[in-house]
Every structure is written in C-alpha cells, then in structure tokens.
Design goal:
Low-confidence stretches: none
Number of helices: 12
Structural class: alpha/beta
Order of helices and strands: EHEHEHEHHEEEHEHEHHHEHEH
Helix content: 40-55%
Largest sheet: 8 strands, parallel, barrel
Strand order of the largest sheet: 1-2-3-4-7-8-9-11
Radius of gyration: 20 Å
Number of strands: 11
Distance between the termini: 17 Å
Shape: globular
Length: 384
C-alpha cells in the first residue's frame, strides 16, 4: 500500500454569522487575504512535512469560487512542492479538463511539474464538480464530451511528436506541438477521482488508470463503488491492481480515543456545516440518467446530512481515535474496499497547525509502519 497526505486547503475563517453556501455564490468580500497569506504557507509546510515523516506522496486538488478549498490552481501548489521536496509523489487530483481551453495547457503545466520534480507527478484528470459549471458558465451537458476530447488531446500531446492536428466537436487545434514533454514515459501515472458516476468507472477501467473515491459518504457507499470498479475492470478483461484504487478519508489521531474526539470534533462540524453546503448542486445535464440512478443510492448518506457524532462513527466518515483504534479501523476498511492507496485528510476545517502536525506525526510513527507490514505493496488488499 501507499500512503498520501491530501490537503484540501480549506478557508478556516468564515464569519460566525454567515450561514449561506460555501460554493459559487459565497461572497468573496468574506475572504481575508491576511488569512490566505498565513494558511497557504502553513498548508504547504504541512505537505512538505509529510515527506520528512515518510509518506509516499502528497495530494492537492482543484476547486473554484468556494471556501471549501482555496486552491483554484493546484498546479501552482504542485510546482512549489516539486521544488520543496525530493522524494514523494506529487498527485494533482486533478485538473478539471473541461474547464481548460485549450486543454494543451494541462499537458504543458503537468509536464513542467514532472520535469521540475524529476518524474514524480501523478496526473489527475477530473470532469469537475457541478458547482464549477455554474462558476465557469459552461454547458454541463457537454461535460463528458469535453472531458473525453480534452483527455485525448493531453495524451496526444504527451505521446506523439508534433506538430499534429486535432479536430473535435469542442476543441480544434491546428498545430499541436507542446513543449515540454513529461519525464515519465509514455506518461505519468493517471488518477481519476469520482463520486460514483458509472461513466467515470468505465473510463478509468478502460484506460487502466486508478480510481479515487471521493469522501463524505457512508462506508457502505464506498464498498459498492469499488465493487463496481472491480467489475468494470473484469469487463475490460483484467483483474484490477489494488494500486488502481484509492480511498480518501479524514484521519485524526491523539493519545486516546476520548482525546481524539475532543480535539477533532468541532473542526469536523465546521467543515461539514460551513464548507460542504453547496457542493452537492448538480446542474441539469451534468450527469447521465444511469449514473444519477446509481449515485442517488448513496446520496442520502452524504455527510452534510449528519447530525450526531455517533452517525459519523457508525458510517466511518472520519477515522478518529488512538493509534491502535485508527490502525484497526483502517485495516478493516482497506480490506473491505480493496484499495491499495490510502489518501488521508490530516487537516480538516479549522484544525489548527499544532494539532495537524501532531496528527501527522502520530500517524507516521504509530500507524503507517504497521499498515505497510499488513499490506505489502504488490499483494492483494481486498479481504477474502
């Protein structure tokens, strides 16, 4: 197995009297650049620290016009990490391909990061969340078509010598000839995050990429998603590799279970009640009917509907406790899901810097070594 530290880079200072959505229309007058200056640098320090602690990689992602994650350009963050680290994989999970015109911009920037880091980029491609289609005023009914064409263009840029021509429905490029090309050949490892779209599962399986499950659902929903992914791989004629699957989940560790909950719970509820509202909006045409039917089976368990800590624990929405408790829960759930990549959110909501660093340190010292021993790379993860 491989362990990654994933950072959402949340905005931690929404005023207490603001009770509106955190997405699309959240007033940008609420954003304080002084807070941004502090947290951007702090969050980057936390990702760099993960390398020192022995993590296999770090992850950043892309969202726009929101307080949930103030990272409209994860490539900027990844380029900094490429310079500030020497060993860890740098996963950008991912670039929202339909938002880029032309998509060769993604090929160029990802290749730059792969060059600067000496071949450590993991390239993430994503359709983009529903709120992004409001923020960019892009027809959501074209999301899948634009994603497919943009993916084809990026791969063409990386694997074919130019100049080449691409004529599609949404993109037309007469002289494709991107500089630079990535260090990793034929291209960097590719991850695609998803929330249960059947088209996404089929796409990832067809290309033999890796599927990353987006958190905030009941563990039963994840179990179903990864079973569907394994079935999609079987339909393509092969058995999935555990490293083709990743589980993203909040993790918090303290010396005892009681201390962990006491230190973490208020920050969890800030995240759920202040930063998640608005993330679920889905514009008409964004999702196919067959995927809507599939996703509705889990939507009732979305974290924004939680009311009590007992529900959080029962659904395994966050893995919180002593080192022993967290280890046991991770083993149980990774065996249940069959995922060879563990993507931990070690900072969430308003969790302060000192608690985040202590959390990372406890995980690295008292949980990660045991996980690596329990799930050696190259061996199956799914429990019998």
């Amino acid at each position: 197995m491989r362990a990654f530290s994933f950072h959402l880079m949340p905005y931690p200072a929404l005023p207490p009297d603001y009770d509106g959505p955190a997405w699309v229309t959240v007033p940008n007058r609420l954003y304080d650049p002084a807070v941004g200056t502090q947290v951007y640098n702090r969050y980057l320090d936390e990702l760099v620290y993960a390398e020192e602690l022995g993590f296999d990689g770090v992850c950043v992602n892309e969202h726009h016009q929101n307080a949930y994650g103030i990272m409209p350009s994860p490539n900027l963050m990844a380029s900094i990490l490429a310079r500030e680290t020497t060993r860890v994989k740098i996963a950008v999970v991912g670039n929202a391909l339909p938002l880029y015109d032309p998509p060769t911009r993604v090929a160029e920037e990802f290749a730059m990061i792969d060059n600067i880091s000496g071949g450590r980029l993991i390239a993430g491609f994503v359709v983009g969340g529903g709120p992004e289609y409001y923020s960019f005023s892009i027809n959501p009914a074209h999301a899948r078509e634009r994603f497919a064409e943009a993916h084809e263009i990026v791969m063409k840029a990386w694997t074919e010598d130019g100049p080449w021509e691409y004529i599609g429905k949404h993109y037309r490029l007469r002289f494709g000839n991107t500089w630079p090309k990535p260090v990793q050949q034929p291209h960097p490892e590719v991850w695609v995050p998803g929330a249960g779209s059947l088209e996404t599962l089929d796409f990832v399986a067809r290309h033999r990429y890796a599927y990353m499950g987006i958190p905030y659902f009941h563990i039963d929903v994840f179990e179903r998603q990864f079973r569907l992914f394994r079935e999609a791989c079987e339909r393509e004629g092969y058995t999935y590799d555990p490293l083709q699957a990743g589980w993203l989940t909040p993790i918090y560790i303290a010396d005892t279970d009681a201390e962990a909950r006491a230190q973490f719970e208020e920050h969890w509820w800030y995240f759920v009640r202040r930063l998640l509202p608005g993330i679920e909006i889905t514009p008409p045409g964004y999702t196919s009917v067959r995927s809507v039917e599939n996703m509705l089976k889990g939507m009732g368990t979305f974290a924004s509907r939680l009311e009590t800590w007992e529900q959080v624990v029962e659904g395994q929405y966050a893995i919180v406790g002593s080192p022993d408790t967290v280890y046991e829960l991770l083993v149980e759930n990774m065996g249940r899901l069959g995922t060879g990549n563990l993507l931990g959110l070690f900072q969430l909501g308003t969790l302060p810097a000192d608690a985040t660093r202590r959390n990372l340190e406890l995980f690295a010292a008292e949980v990660l070594p045991r996980l690596r021993q329990r799930f050696p790379e190259g061996e199956k993860v799914l429990a019998a």
